[in-house]
Amino acid sequence: MTKAPDTALSPAPVSFVQALKFWLWLGCVSFGGPAGQIALMHEELVVRRRWISEKRYLHALHYCMLLPGPEAQQLATYTGWLMHGTRGGIAAGALFVLPSLVLLIVLSWAYTVWGQHPWGQALLWGLKPAVTALVLQAAHRMAKRTLKDRWLWMLAALSLLGTLWGVPFPVIIVGAAAMGFYRARHRLDMPTLTPPPSADTASTHSAAWLDDHSEQGQHTHHSPKRLWRALAVGLGLWALSWGLIAWLFGMGHTLTQMGGFFTQSALLTFGGAYAVLPFVTQAAVVQYGWLTAAQMMDGLALGETTPGPLIMVVAFVGFLGGHSQALLGHPVLGGVVAACVVTWFTFLPSFVFILAGGPLVESTRHMPSLTGPLQAITAAVIGVILHLAGVFAHHTWWPGGWQTWPDLSAMALTVVAIWALVWKGVGVVRVLSLCGVLGLLRHALL
Questions:
Q1: Which of 116, 216, 361, 429 is 20 to 30 A from residue 12's alpha carbon, by CA?
Q2: Residue 433: which domain range?
Q3: 52 phi and psi, to 5 degrees?
Q4: Burial code of 56-95, b = ≥16 C-beta within 10 A, e = fewer?
Q5: What is the pTM of this model?
């Protein structure tokens, strides 16, 4: 058990090598989705190691929650940037993602080899109800935190209806943001979205290496020149990488399409991974045909069991798309390259947002004008997530289509998983493990 930190003295300065070891360790143990990852970083960075103060940690968290993309990975990038500049931010963000990328590539390969085996199918049969329950839990958690007013409930309902009617996801997001901005301009008492990462946050105080009154590092000073340089480098990296793929393989090639699409999805992921999954699912399954809806559910189940950002499920999408088309002349090589391409274009914008916007955020402590649009976007995302849960439930409960009898066992297992997650607070990994074991037992007994 860890001793309580001595609050009298600030810890010694943290070397870059120390930070590298920590970020790699964090990338290997960061299970539990964004909420669990943010809580883990708070415990390690603020309470235990005292590398950053409570106030500066929450300030960074607020900014990351306003951005599209995975907030936990962006928070790691921001903290690494605060401590060691650009190299620290790049190292922290990359090491937060790298272990899960490697693990998902291995799991994706195993899925292509054994996924259709009877025992593999039995395992996936047990995981699918758990995935449906996880999506519903995400909607429930976001609704409890977000839907504090009648207009937000109405916006969530309109978003669900719009999704059912086929309104594109970007249109829903832009419309919700416009409505939220309008209401914020005419109403100042809008409820806040961001609670502290733990119940005792407000009472926790200890001297930290990067404290509230620490001398501001040179790299944190905002200047228009630094901002435009970071944006230009980020845009240049994107244009160079995407342009090189398009030049080598052509505009209609799968890798080129993946680069363009996942850049677009990275800029629309307000509300976390569950918010963009409907958008990714619709495009990957219907528009491009990289995988099936059932395979998308399997990929989400695998993504839930690995550390790192949940949006890393896109690596599974990329691997299966590259594997099925035998890109570069070999299924496994094509899958690995496609998974890496998808990951690069998904996370590149997050690094640009932090490295370009960090100095501006450090000089500007409050951004109230963004609260209204963020609330509206999150409310709209809840409706989209509910639609995704309906799609997953359909494929889980009626695997043979509406004309067949429902799978009552899968329905019952979904209810049990929801009960465990929402009402009993059982951890995600435990629920997935239990459902997977039940799927194997069902296969053994039938």
A1: 361
A2: 16-190+225-445
A3: -145, 145
A4: bbbbbbbbbbbbbbbbbbbbbbbbbbbbbbbebbbbbbbb
A5: 0.74
